[in-house]
Amino acid sequence: MSKKNDISIPSADELYKKAKKLQPALLKRAEQTAELRRLPDETIQDFKDLGFFKILQPIRWGGYEMDPVVFYKVTSILAEACMSSAWVFSIVAVHNWQISVFDEQAQQDVWGEDNSVLISSSYAPKGIAKPEGDGYRVSGEWDWSSGSDHCNWFFGGAVLDPSVGFDSFVTLLIPRDDYEIIDNWHVYGLKGTGSKRIKVDGAFVPNYRIHYLKDAFLTNSPGNKTNPGPLYKFPFGQVFTHSVAIPALGAYKGALDCFIEGARSRVSSFGVEAKTNPLTSTLISEITLEIDEMWNTVEANFKVMQNAVNTSKEIDINDRIKFRYQVGVINDRCVAGALRLVKASGGSSVFLGHEVMNKFIDIMTTQVHVANISDPFAIDYGLSVLGGETENLML
Q: Which pLDDT belongs to residue 361?
């Protein structure tokens, strides 16, 4: 535990232990979470009480301003127990990073009276924004706003000027009084995430509550003036996309742990003990190695980026292209590996409540999130290797 500006900041290991200690409660609430189709209020409160939402929040706003890898590891530990809980945590908590690169007045609007206020999002460019005075009049409907029931603000995507395309792609910051939450979240996987539809009808959004994706790509955002620390110089495309990939990696580890536990006592219909089956032990070895490899890649990539931002250097664009592709395939690898665990679990996996199957379905559900579709980033990476250029702003 260290202190900065009279704020007690836990060590990374202390946060990991807290997350591990919370796992039994998340497991106990898993059925309730699925039935509610959102996280129980107690789970969100636990995340607040344990300081998890502070990991990426600036110290000047009462946060910890820590290494992003700490945030992702806490997310992963939570996902081992309950992927819905980890998904909501990761998505909502990463917004504490993004609001920190907004204009200072936007930060004041959100945290000025209560620095525990949370933000949900849906970045698809569904907003229709018309210029008006010192801002825009906005209407639109956005799906997949995870954790929206627990949030007082909303990040919505929009293209302000279709004639210039994605150069005018923005995130709009909208207060709870200006939008409606529509409960349309009836799904097969990630049932407890409450990823509901947000409807905005003619809300006014001042210019200071608008963040341009091109500024995030160039790591030159308005908030860098008041939050100048290295944490806020990372590219948005790296910070956000890891937040939607790591829950799958954590759930994959959770599925492996459940598989191992079951294999210790499972006997096939033909009397073969799983623990004596060489295919079982080989599968465990291969998946353990794969999970370690993915984590090693994540940590190595962030070390490269951390070294750059610590010394006020630009992160090489070719590295950013490679890193973005590498995080993009995490979900693909987790889906494929979790399916192997399901098949090796035998007929029992088809029954309701089977943890390996439950985690596989949750992992598979995240594969449709646009940030987890790896194909465009494979093209970008191959193009960069061949000496070409890409205009993708999510790198």
A: 97
What 3-state DSSP class applies to 104? helix
The domain segmentation of the chain, as residue ranges, is 2-111, 119-216, 234-385
Hunting for tokens 């090489």 — which residue is that? 316
What does the alpha-carbon distance between residue 198 and residue 145 come to, in Å, rounded to a whole number?
7
What gap in Å lies between CA 271 and CA 363, rounded to an integer?
31
CA distance 357 to 345: 9
For residue range 4-45, what is the model confidence (pLDDT) as tens digits?
A: 666 799 999 999 999 999 999 999 999 999 999 999 999 999
Q: In angstroms, what CA-CA distances link 60 with 4, 35, 67, 142, 192?
A: 9, 38, 16, 32, 33
User: What is the chain's mean pLDDT, rounded?
Assistant: 95
Query: Coil, strand, or helix at residue 212?
Result: strand
* Euclidean distance between CA atoms 67 and 70, whole angstroms: 6
How far apart CA 66 and CA 52 sit, in angstroms, is 11
CATH class of the region 2-111: mainly alpha
Which two three-digit tokens encode residue 255? 């599925």
Q: How far is CA 274 from the centre of its chain?
A: 35
Those residues whose C-beta lies under 8 Å from the C-beta of residue 314, and which sit 6 or more positions away, are 219, 308
Distance CA(127)–CA(160), nearest Å, equals: 8
- Tell me how far CA of residue 382 lies from CA of 25, 315, 325, in angstroms: 44, 19, 10
Give the residue carrying structure tokens 């609007």: 109
Can you read off the two tokens belonging to residue 279?
């295919």
**Do 171 and 155 touch, CB atoms closer than 8 A?**
yes
Res 277: pLDDT: 81
Q: Do 124 and 131 touch, CB atoms closer than 8 A?
A: no
pTM of the predicted protein model: 0.96
CATH superfamily of this structure's domain 119-216: Butyryl-CoA Dehydrogenase, subunit A, domain 2 (2.40.110.10)
Q: What is the pLDDT of residue 69?
A: 98
